[in-house]
Amino acid sequence: MKKFLCPYLESEVELPLEREQHIIETHPELLPAYESELALTLQQPDKVRYSRFTSSARLFYRWFDSVRNGKYIVVVVVTDSSFLQRHWIVTAYIARKIPKGD
């Protein structure tokens, strides 16, 4: 399992092997090529929004000129509200823009 620093959450965010495999299989343009950009998205996001689908998930967005001629990396982080407040990446992908109202 990999862990990334996330000052916004004042915690580390986990990337379990199973979720990393999910990202590699469903979004092969992102991992492993842009792992450092994924980490930077969590460290210094341009924007953070709550998910429309589940209140326990946040979407972290960061623009990179170097990603596929200019794209956002989006990292979806779920927070387990148990006593330990675990944060983990459920998925991540590349996007052309931030959806309106998202």
Structure description:
It is a single chain. Helix content is 19%, strand content 41%. The protein has 102 residues and is α+β, with helices and mostly antiparallel strands. The N and C termini lie far apart (29 Å). The chain is built from 2 helices and 6 strands; from the N terminus they run E-E-H-H-E-E-E-E.
Beta percentage is 35-45%
Query: Rg, please?
Result: 13 Å
* Strands, total number: 6
Strand order of the largest sheet: 3-4-5-6
What is the arithmetic mean of pLDDT? 94
Secondary-structure element sequence? EEHHEEEE
Largest sheet data: 4 strands, antiparallel
How does the helix and strand content classify structurally?
alpha+beta
Count, helices = 2
Helix content: 10-25%
* N-end to C-end Cα span: 29 Å
Could you give a short description of this structure?
With 102 residues, this protein is of the alpha+beta class.
Please render the helix and strand layout as text:
Elements: E1 2-6, E2 11-15, H1 17-26, H2 35-43, E3 47-50, E4 57-64, E5 71-80, E6 86-95
Antiparallel strand pairs: 1-2, 3-4, 4-5, 5-6
List the defining traits of the structure above:
two-stranded antiparallel ribbon, 4-stranded antiparallel β-sheet, 6 strands
